[in-house]
UniProtKB/TrEMBL annotation:
Similarity remark: Belongs to the N-acetylmuramoyl-L-alanine amidase 2 family.
Pfam families named among the record's database cross-references: Amidase_2
Catalytic activity, reaction form: Hydrolyzes the link between N-acetylmuramoyl residues and L-amino acid residues in certain cell-wall glycopeptides
EC number(s) reported in the record: 3.5.1.28
Protein name per the record: N-acetylmuramoyl-L-alanine amidase
Lineage: Bacteria, Bacillati, Bacillota, Erysipelotrichia, Erysipelotrichales
Species this chain originates from: Anaerorhabdus furcosa
Keyword field: Cell wall biogenesis/degradation, Competence, Hydrolase, Sporulation
Coiled-coil parts of chain: none
Domain N-acetylmuramoyl-L-alanine amidase: 13-152
Entry keyword annotation includes Hydrolase: yes
């Protein structure tokens, strides 16, 4: 699913996300309240506590509040803890709502988001953790109470859903001129992306390196492309498996 970016202002970085993050783990939380993802993000952005998290997911949307290349204070394991320093924190909303299916929908949406991040950052399933694992807090309380953690992990591994995500990743967007896609070793042109279009493409767009905002993406000769998660771009070839592809401006 789409992860909407609503990042905190940079003057809050020192409070909410002071350190560089190289995500190696994903930490799952329940919010412990009845608020939407939008309200969770709004509250996190405006309050003066250092408590923070990266993504809030509810029954409808996933919103990114802290850049994925900055740490967040969500795991309760201190300033040098692995949870706080090496994991992406995901809050699953509506965890105290027992009268609707909003938490259930948020649960499944969080699985989609987790799968996307596992692929994006090459995070193995054994590194998807509960808040509890870092600091023994009873969180995610609803998942722990209902015994759905194993289900969460097994659905994160489900190949069918990963394929669905790969299909999303294959969709790339060109905002300016059309672009040719050329296989770099043999020089063969394998695709063309028209101007101002989205196009499905038989590659997964993994770009070398993680860029400054934590996303993988690139800017090629003035045109922007992204892999479904990112909006800003940097120059670079596109790598898929061990093959490198270049993107060229059309004449
Ligand atoms: Zn938690």
């Amino acid at each position: 699913m789409e992860i909407i970016q609503q990042l905190i202002s940079q003057d809050k970085y020192g409070l909410k996300c002071p350190y560089v993050l190289n995500p190696k783990y994903i930490t799952i939380h329940n919010t412990g309240n009845n608020a939407s993802a939008q309200n969770e993000i709004n509250y996190m952005k405006k309050n003066l506590s250092n408590t923070s998290f990266h993504i809030a997911v509810d029954d409808k949307v996933a919103i990114l509040g802290i850049p994925l290349n900055r740490n967040a204070w969500h795991a309760g394991d201190g300033s040098k803890g692995i949870g706080n320093r090496e994991s992406i924190g995901i809050e699953i909303c509506y965890s105290t709502d027992y009268s609707s299916d909003r938490h259930s929908k948020a649960f499944y949406n969080a699985i989609e988001v987790t799968k996307q991040l596992m692929i994006e950052f090459n995070i193995p399933i054994e590194n998807v953790r509960q808040h509890y694992d870092w600091s023994k807090k009873n969180c995610p309380h609803r998942i722990r109470k209902e015994g759905t953690w194993k289900k969460f992990l097994s659905l994160c591994c489900e190949a069918e859903s990963i394929e669905t995500h790969e299909q999303k990743l294959k969709r790339i967007r060109v905002e300016k001129e059309g672009l040719y896609i050329r296989e770099k070793v043999n020089g063969e042109i394998i695709g063309f992306i028209p101007e101002n279009s989205f196009q499905d493409f038989d590659l997964i767009m993994f770009v070398k390196g993680i860029q400054s905002d934590g996303f993988q993406h690139c800017k090629v000769q003035g045109s922007w492309i992204y892999n479904g998660l990112s909006y800003e771009n940097k120059i670079g070839d596109i790598q898929f498996d061990s093959r490198v592809y270049s993107i060229e401006e059309s004449e």
